[in-house]
Amino acid sequence: MTVDQSTAEQTSRALAQAREYGIDAELISFDDYDSRGLDWDDVVRSLVLRRKAGEYLFALVPMGRRIAWPRLRAAAGTNKLHLPDEDEAFEATGYRRGTISPLGSTRAWPVYADILVPGRRIGIGSGVAGYGLWLDADALLSGLDAELADISDPAPA
């Protein structure tokens, strides 16, 4: 896949941090997922959540699942978590919603990953709309010092 200069610049933070952690990450257009045989069930959403003013965390939740709020709050040791609005999410991470990644975030917030994330290759946000980073989940979780917890439930059908 050919990546234009603008896309390359926008993903450079995420790719640079992946390289720093020794992670072999491949930038792939969402349009190419099906033709490359990639499974959408292996896409992991990166959500930024506010604990309190100025304090955030990342939750990594597989596609097709939703956050189990009580279990995530227990894992994070807090009574409240909130989804910030678009501007606040950008301020916290340097990424727009739909592109958020813990890799290359402007701040290194704590990461909580669902127990279904490890043990496979996954796609995560790359920092630019329409593209994902395809990488080894175990290497990502190790590099980010992520805490594993049962933080998701199946999404309703």
TrEMBL record:
Listed Pfam families: tRNA_edit
Molecular-function annotations in GO: aminoacyl-tRNA deacylase activity
Domain YbaK/aminoacyl-tRNA synthetase-associated: 36-140
Gene3D superfamilies per UniProt: YbaK/aminoacyl-tRNA synthetase-associated domain
Taxonomy of the source species: Bacteria, Bacillati, Actinomycetota, Actinomycetes, Micrococcales
Protein name: YbaK/aminoacyl-tRNA synthetase-associated domain-containing protein
